[in-house]
Amino acid sequence: MQRFGFNIRANRFRIERVVAGRTSGSAVLLWSPAHLSLRDSRTLNLALDPPGPVEPGDGAHLLISRGRRRYRLPLALERLAEGGGQLLTATATLRGPGADGAGFRLADGVWRMTVVTTEGGRRRRRGIRMDKEPPLPPTPTVRHAPDPGTGALIRVVRCRTGRAALQVTRPQPRAELVRFTPRGDGGTVHGRLVAVGPGGWRAEAVRRRDGVVVPVQASWEGPEFTLQLPLGAMAGAGRGQWVWDFRLLREPGRGRGPAELPVGRWLTDVRNPAAAFPAPFRVFALPCGSLVRAHAHLTKTGAFAVTCLDLTEDSHLTENTRRTGIAHRTETSHRAETSHLTETS
């Protein structure tokens, strides 16, 4: 069912791109920008090199439209010191679905961008040309990043006609990691829900490879949650070093939406969170007297995980081995000395 909904969504975006990219059949109607960028799905920056002289106050603006919804963004005239050229510039704050605050609120879909100017007493409308995006070299950040506050993804896309448009994708339900606070006897995971309502959630730690589950104590304050790491139960679930993932599970019959949300740092422009946010190994002294070495970290995909090992058990084994070795060496030495004394006598 989820894949079926994704296919419908992709087809709708494809149709809306065709509508947003339509022109009158003339490539002259597309204007090549000096600069066009969108950062973190929020800040739109545009700079245009006008084909002719532009006078202040001629009403030049950028029109962002989808159906009957329209937003008008005035274009400011900037004169360049070198060469006496001109630029029409604009900066706008965009807001995707579910966002609060000032800015242009764009619903899920493809939005058309049109530059409106006055030339020779006549109103002219042009689209913005967008060349095919070349493949990016390996960089620490991705080309398109979601809004870190809401999770909505807004990006500049190229239509078949070469016209630039804005594609808005509504946020997906997430359990977003905010921070991890270590203590001497454990640690606390701070997070928040994105695009899904609170209430009816429980948390658990899942051991990789065999799926052993340990309940996790969770506290809630609206969409924000805190998880107390059950290091004692995790380390006591089996001998050796294991990796544990964390997730939120919805209680049966409590609301709509996904039944499971993995905890992680999902709303980021970092390509490899594991390399960008390194974390050290720590030794925790639990109230029960155990020593546990734990490594709370992010994986390459952004998932939050904890690697833990019970050092108390290893220290007991090491001590028993040391004592056994001492006893063995003492017994061997005693036998050799007795044999030597027997031969001498």
Automatic annotation (TrEMBL):
Region described as Disordered: 128-149, 319-345
Protein name, as recorded: Urease accessory protein UreD
